[in-house]
Amino acid sequence: MILLAQLDNIRAAQGFIDYLKTQNIDAQLVKGQEKQAAILVNEDVYDQAHQLWLEFDDDPNQDKYLAASWDAGVSNAPFQYTGSSLNIKQRFNALSWFNQSITVTSIVIYMAFMFGGFETLFTLLQFQPYNPINWITPAIIHFSAIHIIFNLMWWMQLGDQIEKSLGKSQLLIIFLFSAIVSNWAQYLLVGPNFGGLSGVVYALLGFCWIYGWLKPSAGIVIAKPIVGFMLVWMLLGFADVLFVGMANWAHLFGLLTGMLFAFLKAKINS
């Protein structure tokens, strides 16, 4: 087999390989020399695979690549890579120390709430305009199992994509600025009684959405239906028709912060 392409995002590489499979082209995913992943194909199908690669490289966010991965299924794919397994422990261990720290801290605080420490901890961690530490701490407060599971699921997944494509510092910067901006917005427009990582999550969503569109070669992939679902969810929150109360202004300003960072990052890298 010969080298077709190399790229840094292993998940995107697997998605392309799954798409090649739908075109009856066999390929292998191996560790690259220059980048994280290398795609190998048989020499007799190289020309056909190369043309498909050019289409993928131009726009890796097309639904057909995500659909191919869904159809292929992890269990049927002969290629294994970090994060593909549903093994929660394995996936968690593959995350960076920062991603893990935010996840574990949020879980510990939620468990403390469950065992009767709500009033003390909430008073300590809730937004307080005169304490800069409390501009950030509301992001690690969660009030229900659904609340924390939803937020941590997207935090780990989207945060991991950003770190693997752009480095750990980029995730740290987005986390700090989006937490501050979204928490201030919610406080100024509603009040201090709120919490959750969702402002940051919407920032990660906005960043992945816009940066993936502006810089498709970066390998940051997020499905359009997911973006649509998250935007509709935010609008339903503003309409106040959901069964849960939401920090709607934190969501909106988090989203806008992430989108702004994506535009700035793309301009710097252009």
Features of this protein?
about 270 residues, mainly alpha, Alpha-Beta Plaits, Rhomboid-like fold, 2 domains, three-stranded antiparallel sheet
Brief synopsis:
By secondary structure, the protein is mainly alpha-helical. It has 10 helices and 3 strands, in the order βαββααααααααα. The chain folds into 2 domains: 75 residues, Alpha-Beta Plaits; 174 residues, Rhomboid-like (Rhomboid-like fold), CATH 1.20.1540.
Write up what this structure looks like.
With 270 residues, the protein is mostly helical. The chain has two domains: 2-76, Alpha-Beta Plaits (2-Layer Sandwich), CATH 3.30.70.2350; 95-268, Up-down Bundle (Rhomboid-like fold). Helix content is 63%, strand content 6%. The protein has helices at 10-22, 46-58, 63-72, 88-93, 97-125, 145-166, 168-189, 198-214, 224-239, 248-268; strands at residues 2-7, 27-31, 37-41. Helix 5 (97-125) packs across helix 6 and helix 7 packs antiparallel against helix 10. The longest helix has 29 residues, at 97-125.
